[in-house]
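Below: protein 1.
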Amino acid sequence: MKSNNKKVKKFGVSSGLIILGCAIVAFAFFKYVCGAKGNFDAMGHPLPGKVFGTLYQGGWVIPIVMTLLLTVIALSVERFIAMQKARGTGNLVKFVHDSKEMLENLDIDGARQLCDKQKGSVANILRAGLLRYEDIEASELTNDEKAVLVAKEIEDATALELPIMEQNLPVIATISTLGTLMGLFGTVLGMIKSFGAMGQEGAPDSTQLAIGISEALMNTAMGIGTGALAIIAYGFFSGKVQNVTNAVNEIGFAIGQTFTTRKIKQQ
């Protein structure tokens, strides 16, 4: 039998383009905003209250961490929009409830119209199952065989839709670790400068010592903040994907039960 799956329209954005754009913004911000002369005194020290000047002293690792931070923010916005499209135009819980009611009443046309109104990934998966249901409804297959075919169609449709919902989440998961590691790397570089200043003969170079400590602390703060934000974003969107998956499982079970319901009514 011919599959009824339609070509899935992707609405995700390539993470590579997002990372490149964030890198350009981060390095430009670091050089022209954080490194602006107005943030420093004649000795090159950050003026009081000039946070960007202090951030500039964090060294060259800072714009890398800023790139990761901006990437998490940008990907979070992109995933939020993508998940809203995947959920559809209406309330997903209500859609699942109404769909199950229609399927229990063997109202296949009503369920299909509900899919057309809802749209989104869950509706696409249900529509694929309904189309296969209509194809095999009048066949001579047993109800169990029909249920297996419909379940297989839903499984295939889910395999097409699920990767779109999970797109870019592995990048966010990677940044949750990489952001912290890059922050620690910058911290180590700052401490090396600090110990280098303290290790000089005579009085320690207070300027180099302050710069080294500032570099270490700014990198630590940026790295931990980036890693924490990435963990929160990954957990949030993973939960959203799981909710959609649960909705698909409920609807798939409901379609399979229609064959049992029809058999009972026929008896």
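Below: protein 2.
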Amino acid sequence: MTRSAILLLSGGLDSYTAGAIARVDGFRLRALTIRYGQTHVQEIEASRRVARALDVAQHVELTLDLRGIAASALTGATSVPKDRPIDAQDIPVTYVPARNTIFLSLALAWAETLGAHDIFLGVNALDFSGYPDCRPEYVHAFETLARLATKAGVEGTSFQVHTPLISLTKAQIIQRGLALGLDYGLTHSCYDPDPQGRPCGHCDSCLLRAKGFAEAGVADPALALLR
């Protein structure tokens, strides 16, 4: 019997790839995208394109404005840094306080409502920008929380947070996605796009994406937007 899973879908290449892997593994996907007060709508639009490409059973866009309680460059509290050396030991100003914990909690609520036991999250612990909620120990801790904090968990259900990309480099993620036939032109990664939605090419996310495509030896479809 096909199992249902919740996919936290941002519209970026990581969540797209994680969703594609979930499909290959036989899961029927329901996608959850959060409007959390981010300063641009491009990733929401990208999530819709990706959801269609993944043929998800349902795509929920949930509005939960975090701007009043979670200050970050991504919610407009300060400017997005550009062309900086990326140090995995440094937690940058683009970190949104407790974002993955909030998002996973919402996914958990939906999973428990549906009787699903699986959540897919496209976090990565190698080519990441110092985010504490992208680490394996964090994911394992959340699984423990899910078991202790839910009716289903107390009654014996084990919830699993699948992180199929967590030990891959960005180049390996891209290569895996291309092997699955993914069109990364559907995705959006930039933290600070221009008014036309074109990627800046200089923020942490753009730099990590460019590095990944270069190391994978393939062209990034997003570069066409810079011309």
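Residues 3-226 form a domain with the Rossmann fold fold (CATH 3.40.50.620).
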